[in-house]
Design brief:
Helices cover about 75% and strands about 0% of the residues. It is mainly α. InterPro entries: Electron_transfer_protein, NrfD-like.
């Protein structure tokens, strides 16, 4: 603006503040009425193009740990059901497979921590507000029952005939049931652990991740049971596999169809390829489970391998989506600005209702 002498002058500070206030709330009011603003939408950017969030430093051991933990939990549930319904081959497969997955899971967790003593240090405290602390204690409480039930399956016949062997076999059922009671918590706590971080792709899917992980755990355990047990005893595994596969696929689709920008992390890049492969294998395994797997041992084994591979790829795809969402500032900045615009529009609407 210029004065009467033609010399350009800066606008007064109070007028500028009023203009900014009017533009801000005027834009919010127009957006609230469904009108398009003539002003260009600002573009997001970060300092020197660097990520807003620090990407997770976890390596491949973490998604592998997520898979083996879920496999162990699902196998414990399947083994307990087989024990109660008189299916010894399926019970043996579930107990041994569950304990083997638990050993692998513990090793992967210690490898990720860097030093074995760090796992011991995690047991020095118990914090109910920390998913990692709660999950560690679930893992510790789950382990003895799973291990005892697995050892009972490995006893040779002469040892079973002796007094110590008979006592151990009698303790195997309550041990297996105790592991089964803790199995749902073991399968789901890793989803809570991821969703309580600042990683946008994990935090945004916090309501779906527990269903995704538990469904994936059920499908993988069923796949292991179908792979190791004869079809005559694998009926519960087939039913669990169909239910788990359906829950996994539905939860994955719900994550991808959430409103906003963040779900794009699951449908682009490497995460998309991993999740597409996972869905294809899971659906193929589920289809074979309810059809040819009932009559053919090779078909049952192929269906079990498909469910196992689909579950593993689902965990790696979810992990990759989280890492990708921390590398692009858009996944942080755009949702924040959308929430601010929504709040401004709501505030403007309240002002309009209050002023006659």
């Amino acid at each position: 603006m210029s004065g009467g002498d033609g010399i350009p002058r800066e606008p007064r500070s109070d007028a500028g503040a009023g203009d900014v206030h009017a533009r801000t709330f005027g834009s919010g009011a127009r957006e609230a009425r469904g009108e398009r603003s003539a002003e260009p939408r600002p573009e997001f950017r970060s300092y020197y193009g660097r990520p807003v969030l620090k990407p997770p430093v976890w390596t491949w051991e973490v998604p592998a740990y997520l898979f083996t933990g879920g496999l162990s939990a699902g196998s414990a549930l399947l083994a307990a059901g087989a024990d109660l319904t008189g299916r010894p081959a399926l019970r043996r497969a579930g107990r041994l497979g569950g304990f083997g997955a638990l050993v692998a899971s513990t090793g992967l967790l210690i490898a990720d921590l860097g030093r074995p003593e760090r796992f011991h240090h995690m047991l020095r405290v118990a914090k109910p507000s920390s998913p990692m602390s709660v999950g560690t204690w679930i893992l510790v409480a789950y382990g003895p029952g799973s291990g005892l039930a697995a050892v009972a399956e490995l006893l040779p016949a002469p040892v079973r005939a002796g007094l110590p062997g008979r006592l151990l076999c009698r303790a195997a059922r309550p041990a297996g049931l105790s592991a089964a009671a803790l199995a749902p918590g073991l399968a789901a706590y890793t989803a809570v652990l991821l969703s309580q971080t600042a990683v946008p792709a994990w935090h945004d899917a916090r309501r779906q991740l527990p269903f995704l992980f538990t469904g994936s755990a059920a499908a993988s355990a069923a796949g292991l049971g179908m792979l190791l047990a004869p079809p005559a005893e694998a009926g519960p595994a087939r039913r669990l596999g169909a239910i788990g596969a359906a829950a996994e696929v539905v939860a994955a689709r719900l994550i991808e169809r959430r409103p906003g920008l963040v779900p794009q992390a699951y449908t682009t890049g490497r995460a998309r390829l991993l999740r597409l492969a996972s869905e294809g294998l899971t659906l193929a395994g589920a289809l074979a489970t309810v059809s040819v797997a009932r009559r053919s041992r090779p078909a049952a084994a192929a269906a079990g391998l498909a469910l196992l591979a689909g579950s593993a790829l689902q965990r790696f795809g979810t992990f990759e989506a989280g890492v990708a969402s921390t590398r692009d500032p858009a996944y942080v900045v755009v949702p924040q600005r959308e929430r601010l615009n929504t709040a401004d529009a709501g505030h403007t609407g309240r002002i309009g209702r209050e002023v006659p």
